Amino acid sequence: MADTLFSLAEGIRKCTACPLWRSRTLAVPGEGAGKIMVVAEAPGVEEDRTGKLFMGRSGKFLDEMLKMAGLDRKNIFLTGSVKCHPPQNRKPVSRELKTCKELWLDKQMSMVEPELIVVLGGVALKSLLNKSKVDDLHGKLIDGKYFVTYHPAAAMRFPSVRKKMEEDMTVLKRLL
Ligand code: SF4
Fold it and tell me: Total domain count for the chain?
């Protein structure tokens, strides 16, 4: 499996299929192992610079949340809805999400064959389930496979969101 995911990552690093390639420094394919997949939104400034997801403060925060669910970064496959940093940190538009999902995210999902996919925030929710309201769906298992919660950036910013995300993590722990 590693070789195939590795080749996909190589393809992602060279991809120019949507306009986001123009604003990236490094594409961020995602990485990891195991049967739990975690899908975030788009690479931020630091991720664009390093080519890795959730570094620094946001990485520590995500690790803390994962721990509450009994998960460890070593045992998950972590990736984004799009793999390139959008200009001015804007959200990816529908067409970019669709292109990147069809070209890369769907293939990553078929290779990882996840038993459960943790959907982090509205962008991932839109990409994977074509729905927009995290508030309506968080803490729930959708279609027997997708567990929806908030994006760590929102939880770090707003204590009320953090509380809801922490509650979601305890629900997730029970599900796993
Ligand atoms: S965001 Fe995805 S589809 Fe768009 S250029 Fe990057 S890898 Fe390709």
Answer: 1
Rounded Cα–Cα distance for residues 53 and 55 (Å) = 6
78 lines ligand 1 (CB under 6 A): no
Q: Flag whether the pTM goes above 0.85.
A: yes
CA distance 163 to 158: 9
The CA 12 to ligand 1 mean position distance, Å, reads 7
Residue minimizing CA distance to atom 4 of ligand 1: 18
| CATH (domain of 140) | 3.40.470.10
Nearest CA to ligand 1 atom 2: 100
Q: What is the pLDDT of residues 61-93, one digit of tens each?
A: 999 999 999 999 999 999 999 999 999 999 999
